[in-house]
Amino acid sequence: MILKSLHIISFGGLRNRDIDLSGGVNVIDGANESGKSSAAMFIKFIFYGLSAKGAKSGPTERQRYINRETMQASGFIIAENSRGQIYRLERTLIASDDGPLRERIRIINQATGDTVSGQNPGEYFFGVPEEVFTGTCFVAQASAVKPTVSSISRPTLGANSAVENLLTSADENLDIAKAVKKLDNVRRELLYKNGSGGEIAELKKKRAELQSEMESSRERAADIISASTSLDDIKNRIASLEEQKEHYGKLFAALDKITVKRRIDAAHQTREKIAKLESAISDMDASPLGVDFEESLIEAERDIRAYDEECIAYDERMPEFDAVANDLPNAEEIVEYIERAAASAHFRLGMFIGMIFAMFLSVGTIVAMYFLNFNAYIIPLGLGAVAFVLWVVFLILMTKKRRQLHTLLDEWEAESVDEIEIAVHDKLETLHRSTEVAQERERLIDSLGAAKLRFDAAEEQINNMAYAANVEIFDDIYDTIDALHGVASALREERGRIASKIENLHGRLEVLTEQLSGVDITTAELDALSVMNTEYGKMAADLDTDGIKNALRERDFTEGALNANYKRRSSLEEKLTEVGKLSHTPDQLATLITAADRRIEELTLRHDAIELAKSAILGAGESMRSGVIPKISEAASRIISGATERYNKLTIDSAFSCGLSNESDTVTSEYLSHGTGDLAYIALRIALADEVFRSEKPTIIFDESFAHIDSSRIKNVMRILSVASSNQYIVFTCRADETNAAKTLGCNTIKL
User: Fold this and answer.
1) Which H, E and C letters describe 492-544, residue by residue?
2) How far apart, in whole angstroms, are the C-alpha atoms of residue 699 and residue 22?
3) Which of 200, 618, 686, 706 is the most exposed, having the fewest neighbouring CB atoms within 10 Å of its CB?
4) DSSP type of residue 101
5) Of 232-246, 634-648, 715-729, which one has max mean pLDDT?
6) What three-state secondary structure class fits 43?
7) What does DSSP say about strands 658-661 and 649-652: parallel, antiparallel, or unpaired?
8) Which of these, 239, 250, 233, lies nearest to 555 by C-alpha position?
9) What pLDDT score does 436 carry?
10) What is the mean pLDDT of residues 96-121?
């Protein structure tokens, strides 16, 4: 199978990365922490998923590679099988804080559209489990490091064992020798080879003792039969009653959980009812007919009645004020008198001016006649004298009249006759207000005016309230007010009724809250939902009040009967002890013997299974030695001879000891350098993969596996791998030697 491209949507620290691949060797170059191991693990993830198991001190694969931002591991691979069919392999793993992991797997044939869901692509195409794939084709960083012996007192997995384990189980970390030894130890615990010891031998010895004791007890069985029979009946009855007690215990346990759930629901419903009622009151308060409706009505009615009272007071007292006002001078008469005086003064002024004009005319005439020699100038002179006399008279009269006029203007504080009317009215108004009666009259007028303003505002408010309350507006405003009082009373009663309901509901909620004190609501609801799906949950849910009472009576009766039978059983057992003095009854001994027989049979089967498993493991090793090992050794030798000039063969002997040899020398794996040992180990993995996978060969992945191999051998390894064109290899590295070698050979190189 050839992987054509990797499409990483979200995996580890990688997001939205596409990697195009080709057949043969692909080298993916990246610095440390660039995501090479994540990209390598992504391939394994698509084919086999992520394991939920991890080392004791480290995170699991899921914890390590699920992206922390998206809480997902997802992507797809485009791959081509050996028959040239193109497939899209999809896998998405979604984690959540409050639920189980969800995983979706799809294998899509790009040509036909046929889809397989839920099956691991690795098992679908290669037919092997994950352990075989990772033990052969997935060479991670740690896998390329050859196991060693750390100490004499506590040896770890040696090189020979690692080779044996890899060949027999495709897992270098599974110690076959230790497994065989452990099976042998378990077999010894069950039964020694000579049959003298072990758990099976001990059980057989105990069974013989029980059989002897049962035969001895039968000699005195006649005296015990009656008591034993009664005891058996009591035990059966106790068993039946205990079943009934358990039945009622489960029933009431379910009922308790359901009751808690009902209380939770009742509390929730009560809160909803309270909220609805409080919302209704809030709506009433916020509407035009709200909480201030009646108070506003009363205030408006108070303003209406206040105006009526002001009108009555005005009607009663104004005649008294008007009578007082009539005693004051008449403004019109005063104005008329002053205007007549002004007219007389103007007339006298006119006459005064006319006499001046007549005197000038007389003088002019006399002068003219004198120069013209007319002797009749005596007449004009006489007329001038008369005019002079009249002028003096009118001057005196005018002066007197003007003085009188000015005195009147000063008295009424006027600047001119044109302003006299205003000045007289102002003076009389001031005079009128200067009296206490005038002040009271003014207060009454002002009070009536203010009451009128409040009346108009109140009347408008009452009309608006009547419109909002859908009440008819009567001609008599008091009829409208009475109708609005009826509406206000109804609203007050309705609000009181709702408030009473809220108070009752709060009381009920307080009781429910106290009953639910200390209850974890979420857990209680989940418990109730879980128990509702059980038989006892359904029975408890169907119980009404009478049913619960009956169940309580039945439970109390059962517990009473059970206690009575417990006492009866104790009495019979004491009687049997006194009669027989036996440690066990024949029935008990028979039960113990039967149990011992079953245990002996079970342990014997386990003993035989262990022997069979040990034989199978040893047989598998022999089969591997005789059949598969030569083929794998030959294939690995081709890689070794092509990669090194010093060695041309990889050997594996009957003890699974691995070594490298040439024409003159053989070096076992324990004495090889780190890099050469890694090269031998990698060659063995490649050869094993070719042997394990016949029809559909998977891509072999190397994650920093050549870290200890020198540059010249890397070139040779790259050349050998590139020649195997039927296989695909992906090498993840941070070393320039591996990238340069791949470029020199024309292999596909990718910068991560």
Assistant:
1) HHHHHHHHHHHHHHHHHHHHHHHHCCCCCHHHHHHHHHHHHCCHHHHHHHHCC
2) 11
3) 618
4) -
5) 232-246
6) helix
7) antiparallel
8) 250
9) 59
10) 89
Q: What is the DSSP string of 50-74?
A: --S-B-TTS-BHHHHHS-TTTSEEE
Determine what percent of the chain is predicted with pLDDT higher than 70: 76
**3-class SS at 329?**
coil
Taking residue 31's Cβ as centre, other Cβ atoms within 10 Å add up to 10
Residue entry with tokens 């020398």: 665
Structure tokens at 186: 């378990």
Read off the tokens for 333: 């008469």
DSSP character for 84? S
Q: Which residue type is seen at 390?
A: L
**pLDDT single digits (tens) 226-280:** 777 787 888 888 898 888 888 888 888 888 888 888 888 898 999 999 999 888 8
CA 664/CA 670 separation, integer angstroms = 19
- Assess contact for 140 and 40: CB atoms under 8 A: yes
Residue 355 near residue 390 (C-beta atoms within 8 A): yes
Locus of tokens 């794939």: 133
Residue 658 identity: C
Distance CA 699, CA 683 (A): 15
Q: In this predicted model, what pLDDT tens digit does every residue of 112-147 receive, in sequence order? A: 999 999 899 998 998 888 888 887 888 865 444 444
Which residues have a Cβ under 8 Å from the Cβ of 106 and sit 6 or more positions away?
Answer: 88, 89, 90, 91, 115, 116, 117
Name the amino acid, one letter, at 502. I
Rg (CA), the chain: 62
Residues, the chain: 752
Q: Are strands 115-117 and 728-733 parallel, antiparallel or unpaired?
A: unpaired
Residue 152 binned pLDDT confidence (cut-offs 50, 70, 90): very low
Q: Where is mean pLDDT largest: 97-111, 278-292, 363-377, 641-655?
A: 97-111
Phi, psi values for residue 646, rounded to 5°: -90, -35
Q: Are 72 and 93 in contact (CB under 8 A)?
A: yes
Quote the pLDDT of residue 178. 63
Strand partners, 751: 29
Question: pTM here?
Answer: 0.43
How far is residue 700's CA from residue 706's CA, in Å, rounded to a whole number? 14
Cα–Cα distance, 565 to 562 (Å, whole number) = 5
Cα distances (angstroms) measured from residue 731 to each of 25, 76, 612, 636: 7, 20, 42, 19
Return the pLDDT at 150.
32
For 394-416, the DSSP string reads: HHHHHHHHHHHHHHHHHHTT-SS
Q: Which of 289-298, 393-402, 604-613 has the highest mean pLDDT?
A: 289-298
**What tokens appear for 24 in the block?**
């043969």
If phi > 0 it is left, if psi is from -120 to 50 it is alpha, else beta; for residue 320 that is alpha
Strand ranges inside 225-340, DSSP E: none
Q: Of 528, 691, 597, nearest to 135 (Cα)?
A: 691
Q: What is the mean pLDDT of residues 704-725?
A: 82
Average pLDDT, the chain: 79
Q: Give the Cα separation of 13 and 258 in Å (integer).
A: 47
Query: CA 696, 698, 703: angle at the middle one, nearest 5?
Result: 170
Local structure of 727: helix, strand or coil? coil
Q: Are 43 and 6 in contact (CB under 8 A)?
A: yes
Task: In whole angstroms, give the CA distance from residue 248 to residue 250.
Answer: 5
Neighbours of 734 (CB within 10 A): 16
Query: Per-residue DSSP letters for 542-604?
Result: H--HHHHHHHHHHHHHHHHHHHHHHHHHHHHHHHHHHHH--SS-HHHHHHHHHHHHHHHHHHH
| DSSP string covering 434-488 | TSHHHHHHHHHHHHHHHHHHHHHHHHHHHHHHHHHTT----SSHHHHHHHHHHHH
Instruction: Provide CB contacts within 8 A for 239, sequence distance 6+.
Output: none
Residues 6+ apart with CB under 8 A from 449: none
Query: What Å distances lie between residue 216 and 203, 213, 517, 570, 585, CA to CA?
Result: 20, 5, 62, 24, 11
